[in-house]
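Reviewers of the previous submission asked for a worked example of the structure-prediction workflow described in the proposal, so we include one complete record here. The input consisted solely of the amino acid sequence. No template or homolog information was supplied to the procedure at any stage.
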Amino acid sequence: MVIIMEPTLADLRALVPPRGPSEARILPGRRADTGVLNWIIAAVAGRIAGTGPINIFTTLGRHRWLFRRWLIFAGALMPGGRLPRVDTELIILRVAANTGSAYEWHQHVLLGLDCGLPADRIAAVVEGPLADGWTPRQEALLRCADELHAAHALSDETWSDLRAHLDERDLIELLMLVGAYEGLAMTLNGLGVQTEPAR
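From that input alone, the workflow returned the following C-alpha coordinates.
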Protein backbone atom coordinates (compact mmCIF):
# COMPACT_ATOMS: atom_id res chain seq x y z
CA MET A 1 0.00 0.00 0.00
CA VAL A 2 1.37 3.41 -1.02
CA ILE A 3 0.71 6.34 1.29
CA ILE A 4 0.56 9.66 -0.54
CA MET A 5 1.62 12.52 1.65
CA GLU A 6 -0.05 15.91 1.42
CA PRO A 7 2.43 18.35 -0.18
CA THR A 8 3.93 20.82 2.29
CA LEU A 9 4.23 24.54 1.65
CA ALA A 10 7.93 24.03 0.85
CA ASP A 11 7.03 21.23 -1.60
CA LEU A 12 4.50 23.45 -3.34
CA ARG A 13 6.85 26.43 -3.58
CA ALA A 14 9.60 24.26 -5.08
CA LEU A 15 7.35 23.28 -8.02
CA VAL A 16 8.07 26.55 -9.87
CA PRO A 17 11.75 27.49 -9.73
CA PRO A 18 12.82 31.04 -10.65
CA ARG A 19 13.23 31.76 -14.35
CA GLY A 20 14.66 35.26 -14.01
CA PRO A 21 18.06 36.42 -12.74
CA SER A 22 19.35 35.08 -9.42
CA GLU A 23 19.69 38.60 -7.99
CA ALA A 24 17.41 41.62 -8.07
CA ARG A 25 18.21 43.97 -10.96
CA ILE A 26 16.48 46.80 -9.11
CA LEU A 27 16.66 46.47 -5.35
CA PRO A 28 13.52 46.85 -3.26
CA GLY A 29 13.23 50.49 -2.23
CA ARG A 30 13.28 51.96 1.24
CA ARG A 31 10.75 54.52 2.43
CA ALA A 32 12.81 57.34 0.92
CA ASP A 33 12.79 55.57 -2.47
CA THR A 34 9.09 54.68 -2.59
CA GLY A 35 7.55 57.58 -0.71
CA VAL A 36 5.56 57.29 2.49
CA LEU A 37 2.26 56.17 0.94
CA ASN A 38 3.81 53.39 -1.14
CA TRP A 39 5.87 52.29 1.86
CA ILE A 40 2.76 52.06 4.04
CA ILE A 41 1.01 49.99 1.35
CA ALA A 42 4.01 47.64 1.15
CA ALA A 43 4.22 47.38 4.95
CA VAL A 44 0.51 46.59 5.35
CA ALA A 45 0.72 43.94 2.61
CA GLY A 46 3.78 42.50 4.35
CA ARG A 47 1.98 42.34 7.68
CA ILE A 48 -0.86 40.40 6.02
CA ALA A 49 1.66 38.08 4.36
CA GLY A 50 3.58 37.63 7.59
CA THR A 51 6.77 39.23 6.26
CA GLY A 52 8.25 42.70 6.22
CA PRO A 53 7.28 45.09 3.40
CA ILE A 54 6.90 42.87 0.35
CA ASN A 55 9.43 43.07 -2.46
CA ILE A 56 6.94 43.43 -5.31
CA PHE A 57 5.55 46.62 -3.75
CA THR A 58 8.87 48.06 -2.59
CA THR A 59 10.37 47.44 -6.05
CA LEU A 60 7.47 48.65 -8.19
CA GLY A 61 6.85 51.40 -5.63
CA ARG A 62 10.08 53.09 -6.78
CA HIS A 63 7.96 54.33 -9.71
CA ARG A 64 5.58 56.07 -7.32
CA TRP A 65 2.94 57.37 -9.74
CA LEU A 66 2.72 54.23 -11.87
CA PHE A 67 2.69 51.88 -8.89
CA ARG A 68 -0.42 53.41 -7.33
CA ARG A 69 -2.32 53.34 -10.61
CA TRP A 70 -1.28 49.74 -11.26
CA LEU A 71 -2.37 48.82 -7.74
CA ILE A 72 -5.89 50.16 -8.34
CA PHE A 73 -6.22 48.05 -11.50
CA ALA A 74 -4.63 44.96 -9.93
CA GLY A 75 -6.83 45.28 -6.84
CA ALA A 76 -9.94 45.49 -9.02
CA LEU A 77 -9.04 42.04 -10.38
CA MET A 78 -7.79 40.48 -7.14
CA PRO A 79 -9.17 40.59 -4.49
CA GLY A 80 -11.89 42.91 -5.81
CA GLY A 81 -13.06 40.94 -8.85
CA ARG A 82 -16.36 39.23 -9.55
CA LEU A 83 -14.89 35.77 -10.10
CA PRO A 84 -14.88 33.46 -7.06
CA ARG A 85 -11.56 33.74 -5.25
CA VAL A 86 -10.78 30.04 -5.76
CA ASP A 87 -11.09 30.52 -9.54
CA THR A 88 -8.93 33.65 -9.43
CA GLU A 89 -6.16 31.92 -7.49
CA LEU A 90 -6.31 28.86 -9.76
CA ILE A 91 -5.83 31.07 -12.82
CA ILE A 92 -3.02 33.13 -11.27
CA LEU A 93 -1.19 29.98 -10.20
CA ARG A 94 -1.43 28.57 -13.74
CA VAL A 95 -0.11 31.84 -15.18
CA ALA A 96 2.78 31.72 -12.69
CA ALA A 97 3.58 28.12 -13.67
CA ASN A 98 3.38 28.94 -17.40
CA THR A 99 5.67 31.96 -17.09
CA GLY A 100 8.08 30.51 -14.54
CA SER A 101 7.34 33.37 -12.16
CA ALA A 102 8.54 31.96 -8.85
CA TYR A 103 7.60 35.21 -7.09
CA GLU A 104 4.02 35.12 -8.36
CA TRP A 105 3.83 31.38 -7.60
CA HIS A 106 5.17 31.73 -4.03
CA GLN A 107 2.74 34.52 -3.18
CA HIS A 108 -0.30 32.79 -4.66
CA VAL A 109 0.43 29.34 -3.22
CA LEU A 110 -0.23 30.94 0.16
CA LEU A 111 -3.24 32.87 -1.09
CA GLY A 112 -4.63 29.76 -2.77
CA LEU A 113 -4.31 27.73 0.42
CA ASP A 114 -5.88 30.57 2.41
CA CYS A 115 -8.93 30.70 0.12
CA GLY A 116 -9.53 26.96 0.25
CA LEU A 117 -7.60 25.40 -2.64
CA PRO A 118 -6.33 22.05 -1.37
CA ALA A 119 -2.56 21.50 -1.52
CA ASP A 120 -2.90 18.56 -3.93
CA ARG A 121 -4.91 20.74 -6.36
CA ILE A 122 -2.26 23.47 -6.19
CA ALA A 123 0.37 20.86 -7.01
CA ALA A 124 -1.78 19.69 -9.96
CA VAL A 125 -1.83 23.23 -11.38
CA VAL A 126 1.72 22.65 -12.61
CA GLU A 127 0.45 19.74 -14.74
CA GLY A 128 -2.35 21.92 -16.08
CA PRO A 129 -5.77 21.10 -17.45
CA LEU A 130 -4.88 17.48 -18.32
CA ALA A 131 -4.27 16.54 -14.67
CA ASP A 132 -6.87 14.30 -13.09
CA GLY A 133 -9.49 15.68 -10.74
CA TRP A 134 -10.51 19.03 -12.26
CA THR A 135 -14.15 19.97 -12.56
CA PRO A 136 -15.27 20.93 -16.09
CA ARG A 137 -15.22 24.59 -15.01
CA GLN A 138 -11.68 24.37 -13.61
CA GLU A 139 -10.43 22.54 -16.69
CA ALA A 140 -11.89 25.27 -18.93
CA LEU A 141 -10.26 28.01 -16.81
CA LEU A 142 -6.87 26.29 -16.99
CA ARG A 143 -7.15 25.73 -20.75
CA CYS A 144 -7.98 29.42 -21.10
CA ALA A 145 -4.76 30.38 -19.29
CA ASP A 146 -2.73 27.94 -21.40
CA GLU A 147 -4.15 29.03 -24.76
CA LEU A 148 -3.74 32.73 -24.01
CA HIS A 149 -0.16 32.07 -22.90
CA ALA A 150 0.74 30.03 -25.98
CA ALA A 151 -1.23 31.76 -28.73
CA HIS A 152 -2.52 35.03 -27.26
CA ALA A 153 -5.97 33.89 -28.41
CA LEU A 154 -8.66 31.36 -27.50
CA SER A 155 -10.03 28.49 -29.56
CA ASP A 156 -13.76 28.41 -30.27
CA GLU A 157 -14.00 25.18 -28.26
CA THR A 158 -12.48 26.73 -25.14
CA TRP A 159 -14.63 29.84 -25.54
CA SER A 160 -17.74 27.68 -25.78
CA ASP A 161 -16.73 25.75 -22.66
CA LEU A 162 -16.14 28.98 -20.74
CA ARG A 163 -19.51 30.37 -21.86
CA ALA A 164 -21.16 27.39 -20.18
CA HIS A 165 -19.82 28.58 -16.81
CA LEU A 166 -19.33 32.35 -17.00
CA ASP A 167 -21.40 35.37 -18.02
CA GLU A 168 -20.09 38.17 -20.24
CA ARG A 169 -18.66 40.30 -17.43
CA ASP A 170 -16.94 37.28 -15.89
CA LEU A 171 -15.45 36.37 -19.28
CA ILE A 172 -14.05 39.88 -19.73
CA GLU A 173 -12.61 39.78 -16.21
CA LEU A 174 -11.10 36.34 -16.78
CA LEU A 175 -9.23 37.42 -19.91
CA MET A 176 -8.04 40.63 -18.25
CA LEU A 177 -6.90 38.61 -15.21
CA VAL A 178 -4.79 36.28 -17.34
CA GLY A 179 -3.33 39.20 -19.29
CA ALA A 180 -2.58 41.24 -16.18
CA TYR A 181 -0.77 38.41 -14.42
CA GLU A 182 1.13 37.42 -17.57
CA GLY A 183 2.37 41.02 -17.79
CA LEU A 184 3.18 41.12 -14.10
CA ALA A 185 5.11 37.85 -14.35
CA MET A 186 7.23 39.29 -17.18
CA THR A 187 7.93 42.37 -15.07
CA LEU A 188 8.88 40.33 -12.00
CA ASN A 189 11.07 37.95 -14.00
CA GLY A 190 12.72 40.79 -15.91
CA LEU A 191 13.46 42.80 -12.76
CA GLY A 192 14.58 39.74 -10.82
CA VAL A 193 12.26 40.47 -7.90
CA GLN A 194 13.25 37.97 -5.22
CA THR A 195 10.84 36.01 -3.05
CA GLU A 196 10.53 36.83 0.61
CA PRO A 197 11.55 34.27 3.25
CA ALA A 198 8.84 31.66 3.79
CA ARG A 199 6.48 32.35 6.65
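The two ends are 34 Å apart (CA to CA). We consider this example representative of the routine output the project will generate in years two and three.
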